[in-house]
């Protein structure tokens, strides 16, 4: 079976661990995933965990992108996960950056890296290629001319977060941040599990 949505449709409606093989007769090995059969109105969601899901402090990295966090997914390679995205109609991954006195997109201090090692200039909740966070899409950032909440760069702990949904870029391979080198500057990142569903 290529995904949890296929398993949900033809095999089982019970949530749990299952072995899937998204590329079928292709060269990639099958791998074990968790199938959530109740989420997304019971369509059968393939859930992939990783080693960077907890809220993580970023401090002491001043230059743009000087903080680097590689994401390692549980039980599957990026090639295997890419094959999962291709057989799924939808994929998503929650991403968040909280900041205090730390610039984000203004000055290009932070970004994420796609599975194909491409530097991504948009954040969760924003359109691919927009150079914005979610608030920038609706001109609701503290400074409407700025692309993200964190670009307010003040003493308030602010957050930019949302879902990444362009499955051709997922999963997230790496997180990069900066502007946390001074004593009063800091950030926190959180990255959710990869979730794919629907039959392509």
From TrEMBL:
**PROSITE patterns noted in UniProt:** FIBRINOGEN_C_2
What stretches pass through the bilayer?
Answer: none
Q: Which residues form the Fibrinogen C-terminal domain?
A: 1-50
| InterPro entries in UniProt | Fibrinogen-like_C, Fibrinogen_a/b/g_C_dom
Family matches, as NCBIfam families: GGGWT_bact
Protein name (record): Fibrinogen C-terminal domain-containing protein
Source organism per UniProt:
Pocillopora meandrina
């Amino acid at each position: 079976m290529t995904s949890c949505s296929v398993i949900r449709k033809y095999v089982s409606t019970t949530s749990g661990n299952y072995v899937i093989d998204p590329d079928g007769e292709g060269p990639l090995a099958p791998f074990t995933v968790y199938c959530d059969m109740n989420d997304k109105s019971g369509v059968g969601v393939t859930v992939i965990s990783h080693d960077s899901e907890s809220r993580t402090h970023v401090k002491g990295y001043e230059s743009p992108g000087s903080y680097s966090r590689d994401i390692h997914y549980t039980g599957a390679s990026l090639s295997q996960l890419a094959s999962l995205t291709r057989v799924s109609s939808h994929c998503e991954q929650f991403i968040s950056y909280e900041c205090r006195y730390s610039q984000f997109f203004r000055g290009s201090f932070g970004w994420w890296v796609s599975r194909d090692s491409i530097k991504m200039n948009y954040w969760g909740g924003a359109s691919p290629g927009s150079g914005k966070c979610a608030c920038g899409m609706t001109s609701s950032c503290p400074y409407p001319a700025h692309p993200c909440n964190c670009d307010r760069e003040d003493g308030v702990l602010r957050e930019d977060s949302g879902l990444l949904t362009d499955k051709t870029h997922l999963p997230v391979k790496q997180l990069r941040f900066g502007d946390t080198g001074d004593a009063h500057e800091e950030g926190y990142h959180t990255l959710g599990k990869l979730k794919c569903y629907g039959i392509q």
